[in-house]
């Protein structure tokens, strides 16, 4: 991803910079105007969040820490959180959504044996495809903490995949 020099201290991905500018505009439109000094201080907080996350640069996931510094009065907090919820979803959040959708399909599989046997190939394909999509998304690199957040979901998906593979092996009498 291209990077640009900003007040984030180190190099920040263009997507993060664009999102910060969009957030600033959205907050201003909502009546929350913050000084340039506050924004500079918050970019230091973002840099610290990335460092704590062992990430090479600020990621979209790190923008969530802004909820602690983007308000002037306590009653502004809810508006800030609402604006922050519009942040473009990070790779990890998208990956978790993909895995969750596949796991919902697995959890809602038919219980009647004949219906399960007929749905089995489609379920296996859905779970396998979800795993491949997530692995492709993670190839671009994510921080250690971000990877730690997705790993339990991937482990759960692997268990579902293994169960479906075992059932397919029984169905087709594969060794």
TrEMBL record:
Pfam families in the record: AAA_lid_8
Residue stretches making up the ATPase RavA-like AAA lid domain: 16-82
InterPro entries, A to Z: RavA-like_AAA_lid (IPR041538)
Annotated protein name in UniProt: ATPase RavA-like AAA lid domain-containing protein
Originating species: Polyangium fumosum
Upper taxonomic lineage: Bacteria, Pseudomonadati, Myxococcota, Polyangia, Polyangiales
């Amino acid at each position: 991803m291209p990077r640009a020099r900003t007040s984030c201290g180190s190099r920040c991905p263009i997507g993060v910079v664009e999102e910060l500018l969009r957030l600033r505009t959205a907050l201003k439109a909502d009546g929350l105007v913050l000084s340039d000094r506050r924004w500079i201080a918050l970019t230091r907080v973002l840099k610290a969040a990335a460092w704590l996350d062992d990430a090479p640069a600020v990621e979209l996931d790190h923008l969530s820490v802004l909820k602690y510094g983007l308000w002037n009065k306590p009653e502004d907090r809810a508006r800030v959180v609402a604006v922050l919820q519009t942040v473009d979803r990070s790779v990890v959040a998208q990956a978790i959504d993909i895995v969750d959708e596949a796991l919902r399909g697995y959890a809602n599989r038919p219980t009647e044996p004949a219906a399960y046997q007929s749905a089995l190939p489609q379920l296996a394909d859905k779970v396998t495809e979800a795993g491949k999509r997530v692995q492709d998304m993670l190839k671009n690199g994510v921080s250690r903490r971000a990877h730690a957040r997705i790993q339990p979901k991937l482990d759960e998906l692997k268990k579902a995949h293994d169960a479906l593979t075992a059932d397919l092996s029984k169905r087709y009498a594969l060794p």
